[in-house]
Amino acid sequence: MKVLTSSSSRLLTGLFMFVLLFTAACGSKEGKVEGVNMLYGTNSKTWKTDKETTAAGDKIKQTDAMDDQRVTFFANGQYNMSSGAQTMNGKYTFDQGAKTITMMPDGAGTSNTFTVVTLTDDKLTLKGTDGTELHLEDE
């Protein structure tokens, strides 16, 4: 895999934030936030992009890069995000009470915090500060 430079890392982080902010999940599980173990399963769990929506709820057409995007959360507080040949690693914290997840890419000076709208065994919905949503499904 290609190792990311600082600028491409920021670009990938920005893309991931964009995707996170624009995805929406369907189903009756929407709005249900279960335990942190749903995020990473037994040891790790890989999530893939399902769809994205704007703050108004309009669906955003997925690019090939967005369709290929995957994020794996590990039980040890680490994550790996990949899109095509690019990859990024970092640490995350999940606050179930506040329903937030904070992601800090390795080597980055800032973290990104998202509201966890839905977290079940097979659905994860993250909402950005501007109201856009990213809906992921268990791979």
Overview of the structural elements:
It is a single chain. It is globular, with a radius of gyration of 14 Å. With 139 residues, the chain is of the alpha+beta class. The chain has a single domain (6-138), classed as Lipocalin, CATH 2.40.128.280. It is built from three helices and nine strands; from the N terminus they run ααββαβββββββ. The protein is 19% helix and 42% strand. It has helices at 6-22, 37-40, 64-68, and strands at 44-53, 59-60, 70-74, 78-83, 86-95, 100-105, 112-119, 123-127, 133-138. Residues 45-126 form the Lipocalin-like domain.
Helical residue percent?
10-25%
Helix- and strand-based class? alpha+beta
Spatial extent as radius of gyration: 14 Å
Overall 3D form: globular
Number of helices: 3
- Describe the sheet with the most strands: 8 strands, antiparallel, barrel
CATH fold-level topology? Lipocalin
N- and C-termini, Cα separation? 20 Å
Oligomer: single chain
* Arithmetic mean of pLDDT: 83
Q: What portion of residues belong to β-strands?
A: 35-45%
Query: What is the CATH domain class?
Result: Mainly Beta
- Work out the count of structural domains: 1
- Strand tally is 9
Placed side by side, the strands forming the largest sheet appear as 1-3-4-5-6-7-8-9
Using the 3D structure, state the CATH architecture.
Beta Barrel
Q: Give the SSE order as H and E letters.
A: HHEEHEEEEEEE
Poorly predicted sequence stretches spanning 5 or more consecutive residues: 18-27
